[in-house]
Design goal:
Length: 460
């Protein structure tokens, strides 16, 4: 049974007949759902464009508020758009961890509602529909037309959602991008933090950049976060490619057939942004300023030992004639050896690489340092030590940032569990020179910083 019931009154003309329909719906909820549905929401439009007359609409709301013996949890959600109304309800559902929802709507609006749901919800939620029928209406479409949404209607819904999401303020502070002075201005690059986005669910807030069917953040929210990142960093969100993580060492060479999954990307195409996800796993970025090529990699503990970093570098060398001495590597934020453990059998691989990659090796679950292991593998592969940044060996104190230890700055699977958010590392080759373009980066883009209790900012 549904935990929440939504009654859709959008488009109903405010008259005695429509009020009767809503009264019947409320009684139905009261009679059949009161024992299980803890929340009841009436979705109401206060905009003339929705088809509700304002004066009559006020009378309707007054009538609803005066009804006796309404189920507990009854609330009228009144907004000027369906996107705003559903998003407001979604926030209330998420606050109460509600996933099972019944929607009572007129048959001719069901297909439209399903499009909104597809855009604003994920597979975490389970919806069922019940018809809200006004038998006095003489303009109901034939049943064969009820489940058809035109291309124009689809575009209007998408525009409605985008417009609403763009109006939302950023949460938890300004959008902040971490950059390294190692990468020259012929590239745009950075590592995101968790501030400045619109994701509101605690473990995903606020700048989550990955949507999953198993999480409550829909693609529309993630796309709005990406749009804000693109605007801040100066890249085209329509030319954005994210790694399809497999926790292995596959690499997609852009321009060739895209594999189903891969943990590295390389390109020499200008203006195309490539990105690697991270939430304890480490995003890596690679740049060759001589051959004007770049790459990214997602390096978790499995990918690290499978050699995803060198696999990406080997692709740069093979495809673009890059030279190892010219390739620059920056390691993004990841879980540190202070918080990351593996079963002893798995940790043994890191110990065999270098005993200093493992702490308390004799324990059942030793602590593992994937950052040290990554540097060792890069140097053994021929990358110059001075061309690797982002760990304590080459950088000043406290730059070896642990994602699990810094909840205000980063998402973390280790810390937050399965409903975790994701940050990214990204890079692209500029389509133009930066000289003579002051203000290309907004003030909240910083060089890689030293984090302390006073949040000091410094360059590496």
């Amino acid at each position: 049974m549904a935990e929440a019931v939504l009654i859709d009154s959008f488009g109903l003309k405010s008259n005695s007949r429509s009020n009767c329909v809503l009264l019947k719906a409320l009684k139905a909820v009261q009679n059949f759902h009161a024992t299980n549905a803890k929340f009841l929401y009436l979705m109401h439009c206060h905009n003339l464009k929705c088809g509700n007359d304002l004066e009559h609409g006020d009378n309707e709301l007054e009538m609803m508020n005066s009804l006796p013996a309404l189920p507990g949890g009854f609330e009228i959600i009144s907004n000027s758009s369906m996107a705003a109304t559903l998003y407001t309800i979604k926030q209330k559902l998420d606050e109460n961890n509600v996933s099972s929802i019944k929607i009572m709507t007129r048959p001719q609006r069901r297909a439209l509602m399903e499009v909104f749901i597809d855009q604003l919800f994920t597979d975490v939620y389970h919806f069922e529909f019940e018809d809200l029928v006004d038998l006095g209406e003489n303009h109901i479409k034939d049943s064969t037309e009820l489940n058809v949404v035109t291309n124009q209607e689809l575009e209007e819904i998408q525009d409605d959602i985008k417009t609403f999401l763009r109006s939302l303020p950023g949460l938890k502070g300004e959008l902040t991008i971490l950059t390294s002075s190692l990468i020259p201005d012929s590239f745009i690059h950075g590592f995101t933090t968790r501030t400045g986005g619109i994701s509101y669910i605690p473990t995903l807030s606020s700048f989550n950049l990955f949507s999953s069917t198993k999480r409550r953040d829909p693609k529309a929210v993630v796309q709005e976060n990406l749009r804000r990142l693109a605007q801040a960093a100066g890249f085209d969100p329509e030319k954005f490619h994210r790694i399809k993580t497999d926790h292995a060492n596959g690499v997609w060479i852009m321009g060739k057939k895209e594999p189903e999954s891969y943990d590295g990307i390389t390109t020499n195409q200008k203006g195309v942004t490539i990105a690697a996800l991270g939430a304890d796993c480490m995003p890596l970025i690679f740049a060759d300023p001589v051959k004007k090529a770049c790459g990214v990699a997602h390096s978790g503990w499995k990918g690290t030992m499978l050699g995803v970093a060198m696999a990406t570098i080997n692709a740069l060398v093979a495809e673009y004639d890059c030279h190892l001495e010219d390739i620059l590597v920056v390691m993004g934020p990841s879980v540190g050896p202070c918080c990351f453990t593996l079963p002893r059998d798995s940790a043994k691989t890191f110990y065999n690489l270098d005993p200093q990659c493992v702490r308390l090796f004799d324990s059942p679950n030793p602590y593992v340092d994937i950052r040290r292991a990554t540097r060792i593998l890069l140097e053994r592969g021929g990358i110059l030590p001075q061309n690797i940044k982002g760990d304590s060996k080459s950088d000043s104190q406290n730059l070896d940032l642990c994602t699990s230890c810094h909840p205000d700055m980063f998402f973390s699977h280790v810390r937050d569990g399965n409903n975790f958010g994701s940050q990214i590392g990204f890079i692209l080759i500029r389509e133009y020179k930066s000289e003579g373009l002051p203000g290309l980066f907004p003030h909240h883009l910083y060089n890689w910083f030293q984090y302390s209790s006073g949040s000091e900012i410094s360059s590496i």
